[in-house]
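Today's session is about reading a structure prediction critically. Students often jump straight to the picture, but the first step is always the sequence itself: look for stretches that repeat, for charged clusters, for runs of hydrophobic residues. Only then move on to the predicted structure, which in these notes is written as discrete structure tokens rather than atom positions. Here is the chain we will use throughout the hour.
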Amino acid sequence: MDLNNYWQAVLRQDADALRKFFHPEAYVRWHNTNEHFTADEFIRVNCEYPGRWEGEVERIEEWGETVITAAHVYALDEPLSFHVVSFLKIKDGRILAIDEYWGDDGQPPQWRRKKQIGKAIK
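Below is the predicted structure for this chain, in token form.
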């Protein structure tokens, strides 16, 4: 399974393309907001989310039957940017389960900037 193509379908909000990636028993869990979706619910949420999106897969790692992706997702219409780590369980060449963790991109907290701890990655 080409997860770069999966992520492109996510970013294009292409429901028809997304359906082809999911196993009939698939589910998605967004732990940051404590939500569990069927594949159809996930596709609906993703495709109805407002705005236009772009992004890139920064890393893909395989660990047994689990594939881990790290991606940068950002809005084209407003200043929103996120990094997402996804743990995907694959069955019969399709996604059976996704456990996903989203984080807002932004500045370090003021207390760390004040202490001058750390430096920018890029």
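Discussion point for the tutorial: The helical segments are 3-12, 15-19, 39-48, 110-115.
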